[in-house]
C-alpha cells in the first residue's frame, strides 16, 4: 500500500517540480492569457459595448440607440460585459490547452529513457500513470487560477467567492484532457506527430465550446456538433459560477455540466491507464 502511495505522490511531485523549474512555461502561462485578453477580449469588448464612434455624415442617430445596443449585447452574453464573458471561458481554455499538450512530456520521457524506468517500477503501472495525470492536471488548474488573477483588473464582474467551485470544474476537465494527451502520446514516438494531432483537435474543440460567443447563435449543424464537445459543458459550468451568466442550450445546468465533465474524465483516465498498462519497453 505504501509503495503504491509513494509511487502516486512521487509522480505528482515530479510533474509539479518540472513545471516550476521550467521558466518558459511559467512565463507563457502569464503572457498567453494577456494576449487573448487584449486582442480578443478588449478588442471585441469595445465593439459589443454599443458605443457608436462611426461618423454618420448628416445622418441623425436615433435617441437611446447606444442603450438599445448595449442592452441587446448584455442580454446576449448572459447579463455581463463581454470581457467578463470571455475571461470566464478563457480560464477553461488555458487549462484545456495546458493539459492536452502535457502529453508531449510522455514522448520526451520515451526519448530520455524515463518511461522505461516507469514501466519497470515496483508499483502498479496504473497508479504511476494516474499520479502523472493528477500532477499535470494540478499544474493546469494552477495556470487557470493565474489567468483569473491577472484578469481581475479587467473583468470586475467575476465572482471571487465561487472561484473554488470553478476550479473544481477546471480540475475535472483537466483530468480528462491530460488523460487524452497521455493516451495519444503513447502511440507516437515523435513530438511532431503528436503536435499534428493536438493542432487538429484543439482549434475545433476550442471554437465550438462557446468561449468566444454564445453557441445558440451558431448554425444548426454547428450547434449539434458543439453539444458533443465535452469542453462546451466545462465552459458553461465555469462561466455560470465565475460570471453568473447562464449562456448555453436550454437543457444545460451546473450539475449536468459537472456530471458530463466527470464522466468524460473517468472514461479518458481509464483509457490512458489501460494503454499504459499494455505499453511495452520496446514501444
Structural write-up:
It is found in: Membrane. InterPro entries: ABC2_TM, ABC2_TM_bact-type, ABC_2_transport, Nod_factor_ABC_transporter. With 283 residues, this protein is an all-alpha fold. The chain has one domain (3-278). It has helices spanning 2-21, 23-48, 65-76, 82-101, 104-112, 114-119, 125-151, 163-185, 191-207, 220-227, 230-243, 254-278. Helix 7 crosses helix 12 (254-278). It is elongated and about 80 Å long. The model has no long low-confidence stretch (mean pLDDT 85).
Any idea how many domains?
Answer: 1
Overall 3D geometry? Answer: elongated
The stretches of 5 or more residues where confidence is low (pLDDT under 50) are none
- How confident overall, as mean pLDDT? 85
Q: Quickly give the structural class.
A: mainly alpha
Order of helices and strands: HHHHHHHHHHHH
Helix count from the secondary structure assignment: 12
List the quaternary state of the chains. single chain
The radius of gyration is 21 Å
Main location: membrane
Protein name: ABC transporter permease
Pfam families: ABC2_membrane
Domain ABC transmembrane type-2: 24-279
Amino acid at each position: 500500500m505504501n509503495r503504491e502511495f509513494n509511487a502516486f505522490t512521487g509522480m505528482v511531485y515530479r510533474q509539479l517540480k518540472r513545471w516550476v523549474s521550467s521558466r518558459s512555461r511559467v512565463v507563457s502561462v502569464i503572457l498567453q492569457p494577456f494576449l487573448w485578453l487584449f486582442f480578443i477580449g478588449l478588442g471585441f469588448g469595445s465593439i459589443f459595448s454599443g458605443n457608436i464612434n462611426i461618423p454618420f455624415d448628416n445622418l441623425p442617430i436615433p435617441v437611446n440607440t447606444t442603450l438599445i445596443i448595449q442592452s441587446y449585447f448584455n442580454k446576449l452574453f448572459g447579463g455581463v460585459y463581454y470581457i467578463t464573458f470571455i475571461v470566464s471561458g478563457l480560464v477553461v481554455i488555458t487549462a484545456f490547452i495546458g493539459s492536452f499538450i502535457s502529453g508531449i512530456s510522455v514522448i520526451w520521457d520515451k526519448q530520455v529513457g524515463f518511461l522505461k524506468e516507469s514501466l519497470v517500477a515496483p508499483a502498479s503501472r496504473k497508479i504511476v500513470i494516474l499520479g502523472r495525470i493528477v500532477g499535470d492536471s494540478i499544474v493546469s488548474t494552477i495556470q487557470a487560477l493565474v489567468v483569473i488573477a491577472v484578469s481581475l483588473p479587467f473583468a470586475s464582474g467575476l465572482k471571487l467567492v465561487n472561484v473554488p467551485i470553478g476550479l473544481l470544474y477546471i480540475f475535472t476537465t483537466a483530468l480528462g484532457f491530460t488523460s487524452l494527451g497521455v493516451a495519444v502520446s503513447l502511440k507516437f514516438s515523435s513530438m511532431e506527430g503528436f503536435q499534428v494531432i493536438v493542432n487538429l483537435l484543439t482549434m475545433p474543440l476550442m471554437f465550438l465550446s462557446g468561449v468566444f460567443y454564445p453557441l445558440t447563435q451558431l448554425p444548426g449543424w454547428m450547434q449539434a456538433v458543439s453539444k458533443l464537445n465535452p469542453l462546451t459543458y466545462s465552459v458553461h459550468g465555469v462561466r455560470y459560477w465565475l460570471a453568473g451568466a447562464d449562456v448555453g442550450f436550454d437543457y444545460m445546468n451546473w450539475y449536468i455540466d459537472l456530471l458530463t465533465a466527470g464522466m468524460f474524465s473517468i472514461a479518458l483516465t481509464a483509457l490512458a491507464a489501460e494503454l499504459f498498462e499494455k505499453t511495452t519497453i520496446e514501444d
